[in-house]
Amino acid sequence: MICVIQRVLRASVTVDGSVVGEIGPGMAVLAAVHRDDSPADIEWTAGKLVAMRLFRNGEKHFDLDVKQVGGSILLVSNFTVAASTRHGRRPSLDQVAPPEMGAKLFDLLVDRVRSLGVPVATGKFGADMKVEIVNDGPVTFLVDSRQAR
C-alpha cells in the first residue's frame, strides 16, 4: 500500500455535491492498494499512520502523533497513487489492485485505524470525489508498505 499523507488544518470529500467525509486538524491520506498487497501491508500502514510524528510540540516541528494532538484522519481511496510513471507519458496502472480487492483492503485499513483509537472520515470508494485539503506547513510525506517488506 502506498499513501500520500498531508498534515492538514481541515480536509473534506464531496460526492455528487454532498460532503461525505470531513475532518478538522489531522491528516489527509490518499491511499492506494497494490496488486500484491496483503493484510500485513494494511496492518503496517495503519500502525505507521497512527504513530508518525508529524505535529508540532512548541518549537519541535515533528514531535507528536495524530492521537497526541487529538486529530483525525481523512482516508481517501485513490488508486492513481499506485500508478507507475517510469516509462512513457501515460501512467501505468498495471500494479494497482483490482477494484474488489482494493475495496476490501481499503476497508480493512479504515477499520484498523479506527481500532487504534483515531477518528476516521472517508470518501466513497470508486466514486468521482472532490477532495479539499488545507495543508498545514506544507507537510507532505509518502508511506509505502513495500519498504517494510
Detailed description of the structure:
By secondary structure, the chain is of the alpha/beta class. It has a single domain (2-143), classed as D-tyrosyl-tRNA(Tyr) deacylase (D-tyrosyl-trna(Tyr) Deacylase, Chain: A), CATH 3.50.80. It has helices spanning 39-51, 99-115, and strands at 2-15, 18-23, 26-32, 55-57, 60-64, 72-77, 120-122, 129-144. Strands 1, 2, 3, 6, 7 and 8 form a six-stranded mixed β-sheet that branches. A two-stranded antiparallel sheet has the order 4-5. Helix 2 links the parallel strand 6 and strand 7. The protein starts with a strand and ends in a 5-residue tail after the last strand. The mean pLDDT is 97.
Give a quick rundown of the structure.
This protein is an alpha/beta fold and 149 residues long. The chain has helices spanning 39-51, 99-115; strands at residues 2-15, 18-23, 26-32, 55-57, 60-64, 72-77, 120-122, 129-144. It is built from 2 helices and 8 strands, in the order βββαβββαββ.
Please supply descriptive tags for the structure shown above.
single chain; 149 residues; alpha/beta; D-tyrosyl-trna(Tyr) Deacylase, Chain: A; six-stranded mixed β-sheet; two-stranded antiparallel ribbon
Give the secondary structure arrangement, pairings included.
Layout: E1 2-15, E2 18-23, E3 26-32, H1 39-51, E4 55-57, E5 60-64, E6 72-77, H2 99-115, E7 120-122, E8 129-144
Parallel strand pairs: 3-6, 6-7
Antiparallel strand pairs: 1-2, 1-3, 1-8, 4-5
